[in-house]
Amino acid sequence: MVRPRSATAAAPAARPSLVDGAYEALKDAIRNNIFPPGYQGSEQEIALQLGMSRTPVHEAIIRLQEEGLVRVLSRRGVVVCAISPEDMREIYEVIVALEAAAAELIAEKPEAQRGLVAAELDAVNAAMAAALARDDLVGWAEADGRFHQLLVQRSGNARLARMFATIMDQSHRARMLTVRLRPKPSLSVEEHHGIAEAIRCGDAAAAHHRAKTHRVRARDQLLPLLTQLGMRHL
Amino acid sequence: MVRPRSATAAAPAARPSLVDGAYEALKDAIRNNIFPPGYQGSEQEIALQLGMSRTPVHEAIIRLQEEGLVRVLSRRGVVVCAISPEDMREIYEVIVALEAAAAELIAEKPEAQRGLVAAELDAVNAAMAAALARDDLVGWAEADGRFHQLLVQRSGNARLARMFATIMDQSHRARMLTVRLRPKPSLSVEEHHGIAEAIRCGDAAAAHHRAKTHRVRARDQLLPLLTQLGMRHL
DNA sequence: TCACGCATTCTTCCATGCAAGCTGGAGTTT
DNA sequence: AAACTCCAGCTTGCATGGAAGAATGCGTGA
Fold it and tell me: What angle do CA B213, B219, B222 make, to 5 degrees?
């Protein structure tokens, strides 16, 4: 039955389903290390824990597998993916590419829009600086995350933003693990400001370059920590 | 039950399942316009056509929805996503970002690896030039696709390659539609060679720039064609 | 003591049944 | 004639049962 429809129209506020609930709950459990990497469980067991039948759990796990968070071994259970330093290298390469592109895209927008976004970024950056000033590392990490999320969300590219969110989900555990270990990220405030400033000026090349070098520096701080922390543990 | 396992180990050659079959069949049908954009059907109907029950079809559709090829409207059927020029802009922005990053990554590898990849790229490029010389547009498109696929696959980043494949799946129909309409892509051979050359020399910045401008040029040829062809039809 | 074979058990995979929701049209009213 | 209500049919959401495969542990043999 062919009946054309507007397929690009916005979703009509999908009602919550058990699948969505299971998906969110599982993702949260993985992000917060309630299901640590390497954890292996059965759908039945998870379904029981969530108070639903196996079906919605199974479908949620398909989505999580598609995003690279878990892997289902045929007839042997589902296992939470571990992240090796090698994985982390891949993840950072993708982050660098997407975020630099996002910064560039924003810098190419008309001045009015650029200025608005730059102001938003500066505001988040100020909150980050404040958290850093009072040695609130968790607050810093939260504001830092908001800054980078804002950067890709204001790029005007929903696909790019979605891909970014997916890859950030994959790396969330590693970031949380190392946030207390690495040296105080005092340079980040400055670098963020540089990105916002390049955007304000409409200098796309500079925005790209600064976003890139900022992430590369962060990666170069984080990767050695992970390697010396034990190869494949997170 | 917590029983740690090697979660990063390679997949043990998963046996084909009905879900995989349905997934591939549906993706193929969408790519080849057997299910045109806007097509709306029921899972039951598709299941009957594929000779299986609704369950594997339902799960395959979840995967396709995750990749942005279809959208399931709750209790109203599943509809094949149309691609607007606006979508195409987003898609090309992502392609540019990923492919430029891939070229850059390859150019940063040791000389031996770089040379090998450059040779592979040149070989595909030669095939492309040959197809162009005999006015074989379909052959050209096929070789062109291989070139770009090779570029991201040799980046050494599986996540990047997977994201690229996903976004290329989304844009496949539009490319096939316009391949006969746009002017003869004679510049592409030259530009591909430039990319391979920059990789051979290990000039990461040049590789990035050339890969980027190549795709931007292609986009600037394609987008106007799509807009004048009718807004939301593909 | 060690190795091998077998059966039990646990797991996903897939089919199917039931329920709830959306759509479209018939029938009625104004 | 227009609009409104209600019902029938079709759709997915979810639960559950049966089947097949994989791993584990036990028993048996040397």
Answer: 145
**Is residue B1 less than 8 Å (CB to CB) from chain A?**
yes
Taking alpha carbons only, the member of B32, B27, B114, B102 closest to residue B69 is B27
B177 shares its domain with B224:
yes
Residues 105-144 of B with CB under 8 A from A: 105
Sheet with A40-41: list strands edge to edge. Answer: A40-41, A77-80, A70-73
Could you give the CA distance from residue A107 to residue A124 in angstroms, rounded to a whole number? 18
Q: Which amino acid is at A172?
A: H
The CATH number of the domain where A27 resides is what? 1.10.10.10
Q: Which range marks the domain in which residue B115 is found? A: 85-228
Distance B55 CA to C14 C1' (A): 7
pTM score, whole prediction: 0.92
Block mean pLDDT (10 aa), chain B, length 234: 39 75 97 93 96 97 96 95 92 98 98 96 96 92 96 98 97 85 86 97 98 95 82 58
Same domain, B139 and B96: yes
Q: In this complex, do B39 and A4 lie within 8 Å of one another by their Cβ atoms?
A: yes
Q: Do B169 and B221 have their domain in common?
A: yes
3-state helix, strand, coil in chain B (%, to 5): 70, 5, 30
- Give the model confidence (pLDDT) of B167-199 as tens digits: 999 999 888 888 888 877 889 999 999 999 999
Nearest alpha-carbon partner for A233 in A180, A179, A173, A184 = A173
User: Which residue of A8, A80, A209, A233 to mutate against B (max B Cβ within 10 Å)?
Assistant: A8
